[in-house]
Design goal:
Elements (H helix, E strand, L loop, with lengths): L10 E9 L4 H16 L4 E7 L7 E8 L2 H8 L2 H10 L3 E10 L18 H22 L7 H27 L1 H4 L5
Antiparallel strand pairs: 1-3, 1-4, 2-3
Length: 184
């Protein structure tokens, strides 16, 4: 069952494209042009290009819109159609994934595209993960940081980093039967 995206929820789209190695430069220029055109589109919140790593030939274009409605308008636009027409000759394959809210924290390794769990489960598990981290930070680190802005910045960076790359991948794998009961 696919989760419904609210009209006001920001939407992040990750498009992965396999490009012939000899066309990587062309793709980079195309991606810069595409971002520049999208930047002028209503509801556009930002974009970035992730270049292939070693052993990975995929280029990833990550872009974000303020709602599913503005994203849909962009995706149906003649401007985007023209950009995609320029891209077709040098792309071997592509795939896209949309993510709203906290869903990115709940993706199971090796199972991309699996529908996100219900939002109440996402919220509950996020609280279970954040509360001990925040308490640990308040006990160990906060007493040594007296400036409110510095303390807030360090807490935010630590929580987001730990939640994204350590805690949520570990925790999601441990409770996946509860998160995804139909996947048993």
């Amino acid at each position: 069952m696919q989760q419904q995206v609210g009209a006001a929820d920001p939407v992040t789209v990750v498009v992965s494209r396999r490009v012939r190695p000899e066309d990587a430069g062309r793709f980079e220029r195309w991606a810069d042009d595409a971002i520049e055109v999208a930047r002028r589109w209503p509801g556009f919140l930002g974009a970035s290009v992730l270049r292939p790593g070693r052993g990975d030939g995929d280029h990833h274009l990550v872009y974000r819109f303020d709602s599913a409605h503005t994203l849909g308008a962009w995706e149906d636009s003649p401007e985007r159609a023209a950009l995609l027409g320029r891209l077709a000759p040098f792309v071997l394959a592509d795939r896209a994934q949309r993510v709203t809210g906290l869903e990115a924290w709940f993706e199971l390794p090796g199972r991309p595209g699996l529908a996100a769990p219900p939002r109440w489960k996402q919220a509950l598990l996020t609280v279970v993960a954040v509360l001990p981290l925040q308490m640990l930070f308040a006990w160990l680190v906060a007493p040594h940081l007296h400036h409110l802005v510095v303390r807030s910045l360090v807490l935010t960076l630590a929580l987001v980093g730990l939640m994204t790359w350590v805690v949520m991948p570990w925790l999601t794998a441990r409770v996946r039967r509860w998160l995804y009961p139909r996947e048993r």
